[in-house]
């Protein structure tokens, strides 16, 4: 049983790491903001989800498991929102807002 | 052991590389993004050094809040940035700056490398004197009992910072609502986040403060989370930032320091020294101070991010 759980951990965390790697490569290589966001969400949602799934068998108690799940859900929530905001920004270029909103104007410095 | 060593070495190399990149990069915006990543890596390093309190402060204040302030500054400076590129200082001045910086780095390195072995420490003294304070987290014990004066000044110093921010307001705008926060066009995603996240965030903030007595956490970390939730609601446009002339707001800003000073002053008669706690009441007093300070710090940090009062004056008539 212990062995099976350990194997699950190794497989899931490795898969998660692969998604993070793929997401990072996509972020660096893709041509524009929308496709880069697509790559990022893979790392954030799937990659982090798989890492959390892999760590679940290793936690000491149900509270720590809940905390891990909460981390993933909060990352999902904020990632999805920021993705929407950035995508909206990238889809509708708005020059006079770009000055006051540099934090969101992520496509500016490439 | 070796695995941990590999991870630590990778972390150190990453941090050093990022630090160099932040200095070398030309655009302010990229430098700030690099600085945020640098701060998060520093937080991981503090965790590796078993200094979880410092890690949380670094992540919340050093990276989150400072990063946001710097992003705002970079956005404001963006129009002037290209002009700055053309007016680079001459080679001589740059070499001189480089030499001075290198001297400081070398001096710091020498000091760190020449520390006596074992390093001087007050840890044992703190551990021996922790029980009378009633708290179990040695960091909180030091901050609020043994070195309370530092903490008092630390929380008061936020107010001059806020006054500094407010003082750059234009004359006609004085007293109005802060207007530096970005206001993205209303979007359902942002509104949803600003409605869903704050209950959890407030819970996490209170948990951090409450836990600070016995486990890593404390008022600064908790207050930063609370301020973040407030700012999120403000950015989403669900609430307007309060006008800075409001008496209640100003009372909220200073009440933490006032309570701290009040309890500290009464210690002169009750416990024989300024900022000393009467025997047996240390823990409840520390908790009370932490609670009120948290509110004040959260309000101050939120208003720091909200910036100086802008020109809109919904409550005052133009004369």
Describe the overall structure.
The complex is a heterodimer of chains A (110) and B (319). With 110 residues, chain A is mainly α. Chain A has one domain (2-109). Chain A contains four helices and no strands. In chain A, helix 2 (33-55) packs antiparallel against helix 3 (62-91). Chain A starts with a helix and ends in a 10-residue tail after the last helix. Chain B has a domain at 134-319. Chain B has helices at residues 2-24, 28-48, 52-86, 91-113, 123-129, 138-146, 148-156, 158-166, 188-211, 219-235, 247-270, 282-306. Chain B is globular.
Q: Could you write a compact summary of the structure shown?
A:
The complex is a heterodimer of chains A (110) and B (319). Chain A contains 4 helices and no strands.
Which regions of chain A contain 5 or more consecutive residues with pLDDT less than 50? Answer: 97-110
**Structure summary, number of beta strands of chain A:** 0
Radius of gyration of chain B: 23 Å
- Class from helix and strand fractions of chain A: mainly alpha
Helix content of chain A: over 70%
Number of domains of chain A: 1
Averaged pLDDT of chain B, please? 85
Order of helices and strands of chain B: HHHHHHHHHHHH
Radius of gyration of chain A, Cα only, in angstroms? 17 Å
The rounded distance between the terminal residues' Cα atoms of chain A is: 50 Å
Task: Tell me the β content of chain A.
Answer: under 5%
Uncertain segments of chain B of ≥5 residues (pLDDT<50)? 315-319
Major β-sheet profile of chain A: none
The number of helical runs of chain B is 12
Total E-strand runs of chain B:
0
Give the SSE layout.
The complex is a heterodimer of chains A (110) and B (319).
Chain A: H1 2-29, H2 33-55, H3 62-91, H4 95-100
Chain B: H1 2-24, H2 28-48, H3 52-86, H4 91-113, H5 123-129, H6 138-146, H7 148-156, H8 158-166, H9 188-211, H10 219-235, H11 247-270, H12 282-306
Helix pairs in contact in B: 1-2, 2-3, 3-10, 6-7, 8-12, 9-10, 10-12, 11-12
């Amino acid at each position: 049983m212990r062995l099976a759980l350990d194997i699950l951990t190794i497989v899931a965390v490795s898969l998660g790491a692969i998604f993070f790697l793929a997401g990072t490569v996509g972020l660096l290589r893709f041509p524009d903001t929308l496709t880069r966001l697509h790559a990022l969400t893979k790392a954030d949602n799937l990659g982090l989800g798989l890492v959390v799934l892999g760590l679940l068998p290793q936690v000491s108690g149900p509270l720590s498991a809940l905390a891990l799940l909460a981390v993933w859900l909060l990352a999902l929530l904020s990632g999805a929102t920021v993705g929407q905001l950035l995508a909206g920004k990238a889809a509708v270029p708005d020059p006079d807002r770009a000055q006051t909103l540099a934090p969101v104007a992520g496509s500016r410095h490439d | 052991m070796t695995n941990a060593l590999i991870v630590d070495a990778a972390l150190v190399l990453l941090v050093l590389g990022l630090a160099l990149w932040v200095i070398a990069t030309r655009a302010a915006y990229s430098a700030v993004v690099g600085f945020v990543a640098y701060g998060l890596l520093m937080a991981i390093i503090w965790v590796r050094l078993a200094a979880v309190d410092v890690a949380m402060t670094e992540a919340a204040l050093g990276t989150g809040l400072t990063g946001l302030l710097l992003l705002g500054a970079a956005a404001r400076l963006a129009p002037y940035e290209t002009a700055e590129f053309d007016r680079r200082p001459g080679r001589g001045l740059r070499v001189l700056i480089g030499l001075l910086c290198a001297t400081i780095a070398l001096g710091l390195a020498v000091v760190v490398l020449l520390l006596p072995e074992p390093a001087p420490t007050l840890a044992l003294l703190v551990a021996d004197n922790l029980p009378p304070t009633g708290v179990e987290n040695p960091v909180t014990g030091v901050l609020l009992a043994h070195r309370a004066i530092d903490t008092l000044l630390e929380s008061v110093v936020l107010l001059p910072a806020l006054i500094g921010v407010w003082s750059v307001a234009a004359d006609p705008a004085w007293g109005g609502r802060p207007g530096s926060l970005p206001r993205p066009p209303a979007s359902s995603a942002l509104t949803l986040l600003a409605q869903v996240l704050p209950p959890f965030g407030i819970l996490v903030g209170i948990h951090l403060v409450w836990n600070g007595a016995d486990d890593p956490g404390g008022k600064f970390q908790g207050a930063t989370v609370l301020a973040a939730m407030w700012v999120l609601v403000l950015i989403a446009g669900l609430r307007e930032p309060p006008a800075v002339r409001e008496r209640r707001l100003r009372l909220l800003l200073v009440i933490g320091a006032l309570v701290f000073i009040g309890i500290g002053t009464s210690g002169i008669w009750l416990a024989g020294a300024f900022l000393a706690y009467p025997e047996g009441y240390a823990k409840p007093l520390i908790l009370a101070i932490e609670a009120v300070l948290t509110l004040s710090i959260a309000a101050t940090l939120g208003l720091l991010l909200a910036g100086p009062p802008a020109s809109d004056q919904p409550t005052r008539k133009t004369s």
